[in-house]
């Protein structure tokens, strides 16, 4: 009897993977930003039209790719980042080598890139994962990735697209996380008709530019509890919000979504702000790489801690300590 099991076509495998990696247009921008930052860009332009469905473009001045790497970059499981087979020691945003393969399989994508050693750049166009021939391109050092018609190859996902207004809310949340993490990088945002420039600056000035509040009192903190190092900024109890959307968390320089951490931060403020409200906080945790697993989900925003109770204790200790001293130590992020 002949077998009925067969290997799926590569294009189909990529589209299946894209279902997890690219949930919505904002996921594309997140992956492209991570790649630009991994490529050491100091300047990044982000252009989005129609909530991302008609156009998304991320252009950077990072180290770029040569023509061979351009072709490899859109293949599945191809990466320049995971040099050793060590999933416990990942210092880059990317490591799975699947974002570009997924994105190109479900959209019309043009990648243009130039390295410092090349006289000119190269451009590669893909429609639903089928590649056209490489073309020479006139461009500066760096990479530009342009995506049109996202999900055109996956009609089921296309149906779930929300309105552009809703998508821009997600997108802003994503952009804020990267803006706060990388104050040293200059960002140019072009979202439909809205344009905004965030100049390279200090964290303090970037917080001020991103949070966009008149005056918000808070404190800087820095504390090491065992081998967990915590730095950042948090609001004084006077400011609080109904949602946790002003809590930005980073573990080893990676933006993370973590309910346990948000819950812990709120409990540090529990007798100081009304119940069911959240403070503002931007916290950077540095912990030994072996104590955190970043390979939990393809979108890489969730992490698994080896001992969550230590993270919880370190956060509580740090925040409670400063909150108790708030009267003496508090400073504004808008110093005179
Ligand atoms: P990963 O980031 O996990 O390696 P991706 O699919 O996102 O996987 O990217 C594949 C490869 O393409 C990267 O490892 C990198 O070498 C290259 N690449 C992608 N984007 C850029 C960029 N903006 N600048 C330079 N190289 C890039
Ligand atoms: Mg990547």
From TrEMBL:
Residues annotated as domain DNA mismatch repair protein S5: 207-324
The keyword DNA repair is annotated on this UniProt entry: yes
Keywords annotated in UniProt: DNA damage, DNA repair
Function field: This protein is involved in the repair of mismatches in DNA. It is required for dam-dependent methyl-directed DNA mismatch repair. May act as a 'molecular matchmaker', a protein that promotes the formation of a stable complex between two or more DNA-binding proteins in an ATP-dependent manner without itself being part of a final effector complex.
Superkingdom of source: Bacteria
UniProt-recorded name of the protein: DNA mismatch repair protein MutL
Full protein segment contained here: 1 to 336 of 615
Molecular-function GO terms, alphabetical: ATP binding; ATP hydrolysis activity; ATP-dependent DNA damage sensor activity; mismatched DNA binding
One of the protein's GO biological processes: mismatch repair
UniProt keyword annotation of DNA repair present: yes
Similarity comment: family membership: Belongs to the DNA mismatch repair MutL/HexB family.
């Amino acid at each position: 009897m002949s077998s009925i099991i067969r290997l799926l076509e590569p294009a189909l495998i990529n589209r299946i993977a894209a279902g997890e990696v690219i949930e919505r247009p904002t996921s594309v921008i997140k992956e492209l930003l991570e790649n630009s930052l991994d490529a050491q860009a100091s300047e990044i332009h982000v252009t989005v039209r129609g909530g991302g469905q008609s156009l998304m473009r991320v252009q950077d001045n990072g180290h770029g790719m040569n023509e061979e790497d351009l072709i490899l970059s859109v293949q599945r499981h191809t990466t320049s980042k995971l040099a050793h087979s060590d999933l416990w020691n990942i210092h880059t945003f990317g490591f799975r080598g699947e974002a570009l393969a997924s994105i190109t399989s479900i959209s019309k994508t043009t990648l243009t890139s130039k390295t410092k050693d090349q006289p000119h750049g190269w451009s590669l166009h893909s429609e639903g994962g089928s590649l056209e021939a490489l073309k020479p391109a006139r461009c500066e050092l760096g990479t530009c990735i342009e995506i049109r018609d996202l999900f055109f190859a996956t009609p089921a996902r296309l149906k779930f697209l929300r309105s552009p207004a809703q998508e821009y809310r997600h997108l802003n949340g994503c952009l804020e996380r990267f803006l706060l993490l990388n104050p040293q990088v200059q960002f140019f945002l072009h979202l439909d008709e809205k344009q905004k420039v965030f100049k390279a600056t200090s964290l303090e000035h970037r917080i001020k530019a991103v949070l966009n509040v008149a005056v918000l009192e808070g404190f800087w903190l820095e504390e090491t509890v065992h081998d967990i190092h915590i730095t950042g900024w948090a609001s004084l109890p006077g400011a609080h919000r109904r949602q946790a959307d002003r809590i930005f968390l980073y573990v080893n320089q990676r933006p993370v979504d973590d309910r346990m951490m948000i819950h812990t931060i709120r409990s540090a403020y529990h007798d100081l702000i009304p119940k069911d409200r959240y403070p503002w906080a931007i916290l950077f945790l540095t912990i030994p790489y072996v104590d955190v697993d970043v390979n939990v989900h393809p979108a890489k925003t969730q992490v698994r801690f080896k001992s969550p109770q230590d993270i919880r204790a370190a956060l509580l200790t740090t925040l409670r300590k400063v909150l108790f001293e708030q009267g003496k130590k508090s400073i504004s992020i808008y110093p005179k």
